[in-house]
Design brief:
Helix 5 crosses helix 7. This protein has one domain. It is mostly helical. The chain is 76% helix and 0% strand.
């Protein structure tokens, strides 16, 4: 119950922040200034998620069987991290704006992974089978991005975001259960968001290839891991 209440609070803060930034600050989601003006909301969500998660960590943590499993995660993380570094080199200008994008991406990674993997999925794994728990967390993660319409995003773009974030949510949920360490989905989320927000690949054919290729690999790896999770029992925490 507490996790559901916290999720609702998270969604309310996100939605209110998007609406305020769009309608009151005249800065829609697609604006280059959006990240800077939305930063107080992003930071707030990251902070409250860290505080809530740390207080309930004993109820949410996944059992660590000391088996170090990183292969399926690294298969995709290594090229994504490489593209993030390439994007950073291309977009580097030494100004505060450059470092602001890095901070923004990191805060989003901490807030959203802490909420949807650490708290939500961690709680679901105590009551539901892993495949169902990951599916539910991915659906709710996708629904979070429905709120972007309050930030001025058009219907077709919101639908595309919801589809891509559902696939991302499935992959990250599988990654969390596979590695049993929230740091790994946070790092992946951070690297991916940085690629999207930095603009280092914008306008290049590499950007299109990256979006399509990464999406396909996320879906494929998630499917492989889900097949392995089918025999896991409840609870996993």
């Amino acid at each position: 119950m507490k996790n559901r209440i916290f999720l609702c609070l998270y969604m309310i803060i996100m939605g209110a922040g998007l609406a305020f930034t769009n309608y009151c600050l005249n800065t829609p989601y697609t604006s280059e200034e959006f990240g800077r003006k939305f930063m107080p909301v992003t930071a707030t969500l990251a902070i409250i998620t860290l505080v809530y998660g740390s207080r309930r960590r004993n109820d949410l943590k996944i059992i660590n069987d000391n088996r170090k499993r990183y292969l399926w995660y690294l298969i995709l993380f290594v090229p994504v991290a490489g593209l993030a570094m390439y994007s950073a080199v291309r977009s580097f200008d030494g100004t505060g704006a450059f470092f602001l994008v890095i901070l923004d991406s990191l805060l989003v990674g901490i807030g959203e992974e802490g909420m949807f993997r650490g708290i939500l999925l961690g709680g679901l794994l105590r009551k539901k089978r892993p495949v169902i728990a990951i599916l539910i967390s991915a659906v709710l993660f996708s629904c979070l991005h429905f709120l972007n319409f309050l930030g001025g995003v058009g219907a077709s773009d919101v639908i595309n975001q919801m589809l891509s974030t559902f696939i991302l949510g499935m992959f990250l949920g599988c990654t969390y259960l596979y590695t049993k360490n929230i740091v790994f989905p946070v790092l992946y989320h951070f690297a991916w968001d940085y690629i999207m927000l930095s603009g280092g690949l914008a306008g290049s054919s590499l950007m299109v290839i990256t979006i399509v290729g990464v999406g396909v690999m996320e879906a494929l790896i998630a499917a492989i891991l889900l097949l392995g999770f089918r025999k896991m029992s409840v609870p996993q925490s």
